Amino acid sequence: MPEPLVRVRNLKMHFPIHAGILRRKVGAVKAVDGVSFDIFEGETLGLVGESGCGKSTVGRALLRLYELTDGSVVIGGEDIATLDPDALRKKRPTMQMVFQDPQASLNPRMTVAAIIGEPLDEHTDWPEAKKTERVYELMDQVGLNRRFANRYPHEFSGGQRQRIGIARALALNPKFIVCDEPIAALDVSIQAQVVNLLEDLQDRLGLTYLFISHDLSMVRHIADRVAVMYLGQIAELSPRDALYAAPLHPYAQALLSAVPEADPALEATRQRIILKGDVPSPANPPKGCNFCTRCPKVIPLCREEKPRLSEVQPGRFVACHLVAANQDTVGGHVSPGPEVREHNQQGELS
Amino acid sequence: MPDGASPVLDVRGLKTVFKTRGGEIHAVNSVSFHLRPGELLGVVGESGSGKSVTMMSLIGLLPSPPAEVRGGEVLLGGRDLLKLAPRDLQAVRGAKVGFVFQDPMTSLNPVFTVGNQIMEPLMKHMGMTKAQATDRAAELLDLVGIPDARKRLKSYPHQFSGGMRQRVMIAIALACDPDVLIADEPTTALDVTIQAQIIELVKELRQKLGMAIVWITHDLGVIAGIADRVMVMYGGQVVEQAPVKQLFANPQHPYTRALLKTVPALTGARAARLEVIQGQPPLLQGEPTACPFRARCAHAHPRCEAENPARRAIDGLPVGQGHDVACHWTPPPTSEVAHA
Questions:
Q1: pLDDT reported for residue A339
Q2: Residue A231, Ramachandran bin (φ over 0: left; ψ between -120 and 50: alpha; else beta)
Q3: Which of A6, A37, A228, B292 has the most CB atoms less than 10 A away?
Q4: With bands split at pLDDT 50, 70 and 90, how would you rate the model's confidence at A269?
């Protein structure tokens, strides 16, 4: 087993809730509550889940864009959770981020050359000519015409803006890039262009990605292994093909069954697991398993005790009492019982 | 679906233009389609393809200026909506045509209770008293699967989750028992598991109420699971139209064919590399005289520049009835012919 490039252990990210005149802390939003995983060099780990499950928070915490509540994030042998500011700054060139909204993450008053070159200004003492050369090289790499170097972000389309964001992330030759929903804001026909670019760059530069997305089909395309998050925790982490062929965690099963497929014949025969209700508030997660309020297979134990993420098959990690209890019999395909095909709601008034 | 039935909605040659300082934008260009009773028509296209603008033009929801509906007919129950006075059109909206928008947060008024907003069209269009409207509103909330409906009438939109808000939007759109429901990307802002709930709800409501639905989306997967017939739009035009199975089994237009390939599959073989449609969508400035897709098309030839292709039937049925495509190019016959 090779040493992982990124090793995350028991990552917790709680955001305090203040209330009252004295702004006393009355609780915390447990956005990420004890997440552990490894990312190996050169691989793409997909991180999927629905809005509010904490996937973006994990991405940001990994680069220490937040101060962690607890846990460790070891990247290339150094625990960045405890690095002092100077050391962290020296570490930054090796880890970068591509953001979701290319409109909001590019400064409208800076030219493309200035945006892509900013990391070089910050982290190198190169002469101007060398920097310009590097900016041009980066623009070539991401498929932007050099002639556009002095234009402003608003003159570009969404897909091109995302290319600018990618070029900026590549400027310092990072090893590890967190891609936070990099294609969510783009049109279908443009998404493929950006995904292909990310794959090409990975092959050429040996990059390691954490690819955060809610698009399960795209994650199947790009990721080697996939982690499914629910309410601040990892429900299942499995190799891609194993997960998509036979998800083990009931939430992963429901999530995959809910994704519509562009094939009417297949759609007509598919059994869909319709989950009841909404995701509970992360400020007040349920006792026991986080999924117990919506799980179609819930048993009394689920409401009492939190299941731990454990390796139930080689390389497959699942946090579920049911899967842990009968390892041999589980592994069935998405096959909901009749009881899950209703959809009365339980309103979430919090 | 009754094929012979006369359509509830018949749109012919609709043209909508936006006047901007940079010139005119031809957002909708000679769009024709019809909707049969009880049918669900899927409209697919990327942002800027004109799908939403088409639907908003139908019932006069676009601000003018800058928008101007420059031609065409919109026949609903024998009347041309484009010729109606604003007051009469208002009576049609809500009563005959229900609209569900993409974002349930911005389309509900945050300072009124949900009950208030469902009752508004009932009292306005149906002449109900407050008590009657309250009863009907509770019934509607119950219909769209909101538990404890009567109590929830007093709640405000922020007290509902995204999926619940979309249910409320659907309840409002259904309030006056419309003939046509237009749903503009109703599940795009929702998570997949919530999207599955809403799709299941709409399928159920269709069976119960039997109204005709136009469902606008960019998600081919959603369309595959829910539509009877699909209309693909690109650059303000209808480029292909077909029964859903045929469209997916035997796509004719290069854009449709490419679009189907750019979406990675959830099951089955996994492509090593995604197919790409190079370039950007057109800007739609000026009168459209050429095929809007020519710049990105793998099969473009000089005729595509010279002449904007008209829709032609490929299965012998009249254009709009069966499978038609607006393209000069004919794909080679495939072995996987439609099973439809």
A1: 36
A2: left
A3: A228
A4: confident
Inter-chain residue contact A192 with B274, CB threshold 8 Å: yes
Closest CA to A165 of A180, A176, A145, A175: A180
Cα–Cα distance measured from residue A18 to residue A26, given in angstroms and rounded to the nearest whole number:
6
Where residue B210 falls (left for φ over 0; alpha for ψ -120 to 50; beta otherwise) is left
Instruction: Please name the residue of chain B whose CA is at the shortest distance from the CA of residue A216.
Output: B266
- Note the pLDDT of residue B187: 86
Q: What are phi and psi of B183, to 5 degrees?
A: -115, 110
More confident of the two residues A140 and B272: A140
Distance from C-alpha of A292 to C-alpha of A301, rounded to nearest angstrom: 10
CA distance B269 to B133: 53
Q: Of A159, A217, A265, which has the smallest distance from its Cβ to B263's Cβ?
A: A217
Check A262 against B265: CB less than 8 A apart: yes
Q: Residue A333: is its pLDDT beyond 70?
A: no
Number of A–B residue contacts, CB under 8 Å: 150
Q: How far apart are CA B106 and CA B109, in angstroms?
A: 7
Q: Give mean pLDDT, residues A265-280.
A: 84
Tell me the whole-structure pTM to 2 decimals. 0.84
| Structure confidence at residue A344 as a pLDDT band (50, 70, 90) | very low
B193/A255 touch (CB, cutoff 8 Å), yes or no: yes
- Joined together, the tokens standing for residue B197 give 């709930």
- CA atoms of A239 and B230, how far apart (whole Å): 36
Q: B254: distance to nearest CA of chain A, Å? A: 13
**B97: enclosing H helix or E strand:** strand B97-100
Is the minimum CB–CB distance between A265 and chain B shorter than 8 Å?
A: yes
Tell me what percent of chain B is helix, strand and coil, each rounded to the nearest 5: 35, 20, 45
Q: Which residues of chain B have pLDDT under 70?
A: 1-5, 334-340
Closest B-chain CA to A276: B197
Cβ count within 10 A of residue A230: 27
Q: Between chains, do B192 and A259 touch, taking CB under 8 Å as contact?
A: yes
Q: What is the DSSP letter of B28?
A: E
pLDDT at residue A1 in the model: 58
> Looking at beta carbons, which residues of chain B come within 8 Å of A348?
161
Q: Shortest CA distance to A184 belongs to which of A90, A17, A56?
A: A56
- Best of B152, B193, B246 to disrupt the A interface by mutation (most A CBs within 10 Å)? B193
Q: Please say if the pLDDT value at position A309 is more than 80.
A: yes
- Torsion sign, CA atoms B306, A160, A224, A262: negative
pLDDT for res B241: 95
The minimal CB distance from A157 to the residues B222, B276, B280 is found for B280
Q: Helix, strand, or coil here: A303?
A: helix
Contact A229, A54 (CB under 8 A): yes
Sheet strands (E) in chain A? 6-19, 24-39, 44-48, 70-75, 78-79, 95-98, 176-180, 208-213, 225-230, 233-239, 310-313, 316-318
Is residue A202 packed enough to be buried (19+ CB in 10 Å), middle (13-18) or exposed (0-12)?
Answer: middle
DSSP letter string, A210-276: EEEES-HHHHHHH-SEEEEEETTEEEEEEEHHHHHH---SHHHHHHHHHS--S-HHHHHH-------
Spatial neighbors of B143 by CB under 8 A, at least 6 apart, are B171, B174, B205, B208
Residue B140, both tokens: 């509607």
Q: What letter represents residue A1's amino acid? A: M
Q: What is the ipTM of this complex?
A: 0.79
